[in-house]
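A favour, since you know our structure tokens better than I do. It will help me judge whether the discrete encoding reads sensibly. The space below this message is yours for that.
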Amino acid sequence: MRALIVYPTMVLMTIVLGVPIVVLSLLGVHIAPDSFLGRAPRVWSRAVLRVSAVRLTVRNPEHIGAPNEARMYVSNHVSWFEIFGLACVLPHYRFVAKKELASIPVFGRAAKEVAAIFIDRKNRKAAFQTYAEAAEQIKRGISVAVFPEGTRGRSYTLRPFKKGPFVLAIAAQVPVVPVVSWGTKEVQGKGQLAIHGGSCELTFLEPIATTGLTYDDRDALLRTVWERIAHVLVEKGIPATGAPAESAA
């Protein structure tokens, strides 16, 4: 069973990479994004994909952008393996992740230092404050990856998006890059412990400019991104159903 190899690898890589990050952070040492520890999420994720026997294909890599060019990447979400895949290819980024992950020993503290911006999804006011802080990081050249469906789905059918990420993109005035993840559910779907080898795809779509947009444009931006991701999924046989937006952010 492949999971018997993958999960110990996750723990080992978390200790090897996470403990030095935690120690340095406690000492007040800044970890540069281009340093070995700054690239720890990429090293960790590549190791996990390798032992999981997952082959990652990146389509339209020209839309990823340069390391010093901040962008927001918006992806559909059906598996943890979207996160691992994106971590392997994105330059200078932070994931917007649920606050509960911050409580994982070593992993949570290390992720906060080099990989994640934790958000309290149950507290709307706190969530928007986190997005405001994330906007300041983006303005300093750090890209952000977001899963606006909020949590993993059990099928590829695209669910409604939360509005907060699009408010963030407009506040930071950075391009939004829609990303279509495919094949990750077959590797490990929501609620599954088993991990299956296979092929996964990340398709980066053409960036959508936000320069000049205001808060009032958030719904139109959300709808555009949702429709572009849904269009690619429809081409793969997944119907586009439901509304693009949730009523709450």
